[in-house]
């Protein structure tokens, strides 16, 4: 059941859209440009604050980016105090997220994105995770970046994980 207004948000931003702004990589400039359009409300989307925390975790723990520079970038985003930030993980949204996770075989964080989208009255999730749109009926995954840059980014991450950047 939709509780929000689609006039306010046309989509929800996934953590994978935020991670590239945290460190030097081929997708960083496009990610910064997209996030700035969201934070300025040129692009009508919501950024769950939990995704900013998730970006820190992914960038520092999985991608081994230095903690302080990542923190500084993410704090800078948060200090815009943009109305695009969605701060709520209510028990209702968490229950809905867990239900979606179990029903559709997705991660609980993806279930949360779907729950937030539903709450806001939209079906768009800005993400690099195309599978989410396949697994959850009615969800449309939109990649806001050029396919060439996404391919370069994924190749860069492979080299990074192998220790060859």
Indicate the overall shape: globular
Look at the structure and name the CATH superfamily: 5'-nuclease
Low-confidence stretches: 1-7
Percentage of β-strand residues? 5-15%
Q: How is the CATH topology named? A: Rossmann fold
User: DSSP helix count?
Assistant: 8
- Rg over CA atoms, rounded to whole Å, is 15 Å
SS content category: alpha/beta
Strand order of the largest sheet: 3-2-1-4-5
Helix and strand pattern: EHHEHHEHHEHEH
Domains counted in the coordinates: how many? 1
> What is the CATH architecture assignment?
3-Layer(aba) Sandwich
Spell out the blueprint of helices and strands:
Layout: E1 11-13, H1 15-18, H2 28-39, E2 45-48, H3 49-62, H4 67-78, E3 85-86, H5 91-104, H6 108-120, E4 124-126, H7 130-135, E5 140-142, H8 147-161
Parallel strand pairs: 1-2, 1-4, 2-3, 4-5
Characterise this structure.
This protein has a single domain (11-160), classed as Rossmann fold, CATH 3.40.50. Helix 5 crosses helix 6. 55% of the residues lie in helices and 9% in strands. Strand 4, helix 7 and strand 5 (140-142) form a beta-alpha-beta unit. It has helices at 15-18, 28-39, 49-62, 67-78, 91-104, 108-120, 130-135, 147-161, and strands spanning 11-13, 45-48, 85-86, 124-126, 140-142. Strands 3-2-1-4-5 form a 5-stranded parallel beta sheet. The N and C termini lie far apart (46 Å).
């Amino acid at each position: 059941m939709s509780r929000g207004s689609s006039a306010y948000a046309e989509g929800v931003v996934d953590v994978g859209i935020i991670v590239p702004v945290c460190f030097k990589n081929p997708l960083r400039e496009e990610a910064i440009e997209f996030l700035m359009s969201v934070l300025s409300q040129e692009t009508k989307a919501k950024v769950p604050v939990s995704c900013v925390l998730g970006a820190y975790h992914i960038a520092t723990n999985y991608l081994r980016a230095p903690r302080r520079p990542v923190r500084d970038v993410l704090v800078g985003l948060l200090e815009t105090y943009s109305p695009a930030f969605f701060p709520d993980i209510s028990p209702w949204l968490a229950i809905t997220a867990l239900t979606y996770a179990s029903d559709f075989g997705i991660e609980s964080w993806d279930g949360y994105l779907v729950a937030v989208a539903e709450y806001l009255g939209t079906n768009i999730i800005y993400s690099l995770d195309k599978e989410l749109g396949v697994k959850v009926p009615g969800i449309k995954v939109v990649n806001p970046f050029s396919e060439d840059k996404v391919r370069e980014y994924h190749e860069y991450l492979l080299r990074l994980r192998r220790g060859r950047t």
